[in-house]
Structure formats: C-alpha cells, structure tokens
Design brief:
The protein is built from five helices and three strands; from the N terminus they run H-H-E-H-E-H-E-H. It is mainly α. Strands 1-2-3 form a three-stranded parallel β-sheet. Helix 3 links the parallel strand 1 and strand 2. Helix 2 runs parallel beside helix 3 and helix 3 packs parallel to helix 4.
Length: 171
C-alpha cells in the first residue's frame, strides 16, 4: 500500500479547505473490511459514494496452468473482496437518511474489459472480473430496496462491437 501517496492526497485536500481521510483496508480480510466500516461510521457523518476498485492479476498463463495459490489470491481480492466491501457498505447505507441527491449512497464496482471479452493468457483474471461485472450489472436494472444505487463500470453500456474493436489485434 502506498500510504505516503494517500497521506499526501489527504493533506492537499485539507490545505485546499476540503475534508478527507485515509484508512488502509485488506479486502481479503473480512475483519479488515469490518474495521473500515467501523472507521467510516465513527469518523464521518455519512457515506455518499464508494468506488470498489481493488483488483490484481498474479499470472498471465493458460487457465489450466495457473497455480491454485494464484487463483485463490485473484479470487480473494477481485471477487470476494468486492463482495465483502459491498456487504459492509450496504449495511451502512441502509442506516443513512436520504442525501441531497435523494439517494442514500452509491456503490460503484469496477471490473475490467477482461471481464467482458477473452484476453490471451488472462482467463484466470478474466473469470474473477466477470464474476464482479455480471452481478453488479443486475443492480442497475433492479432498484435496491434500501434506496442505494449499485453499478458496474460504464463499459457495459457500450455495444459489444466497441469492445471487440478495441481488443482485436492482427494475427
């Protein structure tokens, strides 16, 4: 984690008259995510938006050649970490009153183009990102009972052919 970088961002925002804070979280640890939720609840009046952007790829090799340890790490960060964050933030949003925009808050789950199309030797990573993208896109269609909004990256708003052109390479 680049703690110095985030501390500098907080300092810059504060010097400009804004309000910001930084709290490190390990999305592979459910306890760490719960601690983040407690920190936010204790230190901030409300939570308006969360960008769930943790992700990594440890390997670029054929799916069947990917070591179990690499697959576990990608799954725990990319898919399970996203779920853990969303679970905790959703509980907080349910308790909030409506904000100025008439919403309780927004959760944005970031995925990857690799979750939409196949990328050579990236099937393990792609599978974890597709697992984030697909459930997130359903939340855009079905209104949430708790008045919060969930969405995945705007990439799923574009036609499939746009993605294909962007990732088609000559043989």
């Amino acid at each position: 984690i680049f703690t110095n970088r985030y501390s500098q961002v907080v300092a810059t925002i504060s010097q400009a008259g804004g309000s910001a804070s930084f709290h490190a979280v390990d999305v592979t640890s459910h306890q760490s995510v719960i601690a983040l939720h407690a920190y936010v609840a204790e230190n901030h009046a409300r939570l308006d938006a969360v960008v769930n952007n943790a992700g990594m790829s440890s390997t670029f090799q054929a799916f069947h050649d990917t070591p179990t340890e690499d697959m576990d790490l990608m799954y725990n960060i990319n898919q399970r970490g996203t779920w853990c964050m969303q679970e905790q933030i959703k509980m907080m949003l349910k308790q909030q009153k409506l904000g100025d925009a008439g919403k309780k808050g927004t959760i944005v789950n970031m995925a990857s183009m690799s979750g939409l199309i196949g990328v050579p030797y990236a099937a393990p990573y792609s599978s974890t990102k597709h697992a984030v993208r697909k459930p997130s896109s359903y939340h855009e269609i079905v209104p949430a009972a708790d008045n919060s909004t969930r969405s995945s990256a705007s990439l799923n708003q574009q036609p499939w052919s746009t993605h294909m052109k962007a990732f088609t390479s000559p043989p």
